[in-house]
Input
Amino acid sequence: MLRFRGVIQIRGVNPYVHVSAKLSNQLKRGWRQPLPVLVRINEQPRKPWRINMMPVGDGSFYLYLRGPVRATCNVKVGDPVTVDLSFDKRYRSGPTHPIPQWFRKALNNNANAKGAWNALVPSRKKEILRYFAALKSAEAKARNLKRAVEALSGSEARFMARSWKQGK
Output
C-alpha cells in the first residue's frame, strides 16, 4: 500500500489528485496505460474503490475522483487529502464481455472482418463488446451487427460514433 498526501484539483470538470511518476513507479514500474488501482481517500471507505488512474504522458497519472468517492469522503476540490493506493491485482486485461454468438458467426462468415477484428487493439475490442452487451432489442443488434461488419470489412463506415476506413 502506498500512502501520500495530495490536493484535489480540477481538470475541465473532472476532480483529480495528481500521482507523480515517482509514486506511480512504486505501484507498477513503467506502466503507460490506464493503471488499475485500489483507492482510499482519508481512510475511506473500508473496502477500497477500484479505479483506473489515467496517464498524463510523462509517467505521472491523474487519479480522477468521481462524485460518490468525494461524497463518501466528504471532500471537494481544493481539499488536502491522504491517498492510499495499491495496484489492483485482480485486474485482467482484454475484453470483459464475451463475444456474442451472433457477432462471432458474422465474423466467421467474413474473412476481412475477422482479420480486422483480430488486429484491433484490446481496448477497442473491449469497447465494442461492452457496447454489444448493452444492446437489448433484436433490431438494435441486427442494425449494429451490419454496421460493425461493414466497418471491419474495410468499407468507409460510421460505427460507434467514429469513422472507419480499412477496418480501423
